[in-house]
What we know:
Strand order of the largest sheet: 5-2-1-6-7-8
Structural class: alpha/beta
CATH architecture of the largest domain: 3-Layer(aba) Sandwich
Distance between the termini: 34 Å
Strand content: 5-15%
CATH superfamily of the largest domain: Crotonobetainyl-coa:carnitine coa-transferase, domain 1
Amino acid sequence: MPGPIHGVKVLELAQIMAGPTCGLMLADLGAEVIKIEKIPGGDDTRRFLPPDVNGEAAAFMMMNRNKRGMALDLKTKEGVEVFKRMVKQADVVVENFRKGTLEKLGVGYEELKKINPKIILCEISGYGRTGPYADKGGFDLIAQGMSGLMSITGESKGKPPMKVGAPVTDITAGILAATGVLAALVSRANTGVGQRVDTSLYEAGIVHTYWQSAIASATGVAPGPLGSAHPLTAPYQAFQTKDKWITVGASNQNTWLKLIDALGAKELQENEKFNSNANRMKNLTELTELLKKELVKKTAEEWLKLFDEKGLPCGPINTVTEMFEDPQTIERKMIVDVKNTKAGSFKAIGMPIKFSETKVEDSKESPTFGQHTKQILLDFGFKSEEIDSLMKQGVVS
């Protein structure tokens, strides 16, 4: 069976990560996503080199599989007219330009909804389309800092500020945008009317502070970084064993009892410093030192086997390549081999949502620059001679 939103047509004007993440999610759910790249050059990630595979940027291939691609110059009158004709038959437009860019091109939301009242315009920006920062450009690093995320990331207070290793606000903004698009599609099915969907990297960073914001709201005190530890429960962090680091999630009284049972240290429960979560959090430094001394006595494999037997949440700290080879990753098809016209076989991240009835199709390659331009325009009703003329003018490529 096709994906759950099979038949939905998405025009993706976005580039780099946040917008393409949204497009990728929608493509994996069954939408026909058409990536419209700028002339000249296309998506900037085509130049995020190295690494590359046979000249194709790995970053571009990762974010743009399952999409068809065309190259269109929206800075020309003819290019804008091409886009408007495509909007008539589209369901969704995804963009991550600065505020006002589409309006300057003559294809802002007010114009788009005149062409197609059912159109859903999804806008992903640095800070959202309203507010004092609406005109500013946004980047993941800046959003992580301003949202409070960097203030709670790192080893401890007094150390240099640290960002989350992944561009988490970019990726999260893309997922929030896809969620918004799906909600707008449901609303349109009920009302027959499209709408704007507006989210940002800044808001994507803020939603990652749920626990720390709860603390700040209740106490008036801004929490700081705790390394791998949890701000509300303990012990819940990474520990070094005889040979490697592992994570241990004794996040409630039940799992705490399982941990001290596995360690053969049931006397810790009789110690008032550690007999409740509140006391363990109050005496976290001392508790951590006690656990460190125990956990370095065995290897990671020995501890993980024992903890698994006790039913204690735990796990190894994998490198990305080790994650590729983990049997759970393989079983869940989270790393997929995608064939690419230029690169050959390329490993990409698969669809993270599974359905019992609607199946996700096998991943298709990311497009080479302008790979499907002619066929896309034919599908949208353009005649061959029109396309040839547009090609000669450099409006499409």
